Amino acid sequence: MPRIQLTDTVPFQPVQMFELVLDVRKYPEFLPWCTKTRVFNEEERQFVAELTISFRGMRESFQTVDRFVPPRKVEVKLRSGPFQHLENEWIFTPTPQGTRVDFFIDFKFKSRLMNVTLGPIFTQVSRQMLEAFRNRAFVLYGQTLVSPP
């Protein structure tokens, strides 16, 4: 199974990046290929998210269980969908420059065709996704490091 690890440092507080990642309902506004989302079974430290992705003529929906430890970590695990396996983790670490964002994803599609078609470009897709979150943070929070409350 491909495992991808990406890191970025952004000039924002960990809580800001944490809240941005948790705001699944807003993903269609800025996340490439995400056309629809739904959040349900919300509890204190977890919820179920359903995302619909459209990419290269394919349209797929999947559900995940999203667990979180504010404001440091978000863990995402597959509940149902086109993946045989999907785990994703976001870790937010404060730095003098703002926040180090560590993004991990480990996946395997059920379909051999999807593995052959999308597997090789998933690193690029993951980079574009991380960049979309970075850009969204600048839109929401501005250009400079925001001091914690």
Please describe what this structure looks like:
This protein is α+β, with helices and mostly antiparallel strands. The protein has a single domain, classed as START domain (Alpha-D-Glucose-1,6-Bisphosphate, Chain A, domain 4), CATH 3.30.530.20. 27% of the residues lie in helices and 47% in strands. It contains four helices and seven strands. It has helices at residues 14-22, 27-30, 112-118, 122-141; strands at 3-10, 34-40, 46-55, 58-69, 73-80, 83-95, 98-109. The chain has a seven-stranded antiparallel beta sheet with strand order 1-7-6-5-4-3-2. β3 (46-55) and β4 (58-69) form a beta hairpin. The radius of gyration is 15 Å and the shape is globular. The mean pLDDT is 91.
Which term fits the overall shape? globular
What is the share of helical residues? Answer: 25-40%
Low-confidence stretches: none
Biggest sheet character: 7 strands, antiparallel
Number of domains: 1
Structure classification: alpha+beta
At the third CATH level, what is the topology name?
Alpha-D-Glucose-1,6-Bisphosphate, Chain A, domain 4
How many β-strand stretches?
7
Rounded to the nearest angstrom, the radius of gyration is: 15 Å
Mean pLDDT: 91
Sheet with the most strands: spatial strand order: 1-7-6-5-4-3-2
Task: Give the strand content.
Answer: over 45%
Spatial gap, N to C terminus: 41 Å
CATH architecture: 2-Layer Sandwich
Q: Could you state the CATH homologous superfamily?
A: START domain
Q: What's the level 1 CATH class?
A: Alpha Beta
**Number of H- or I-type helical stretches:** 4
The run of helices and strands is: EHHEEEEEEHH
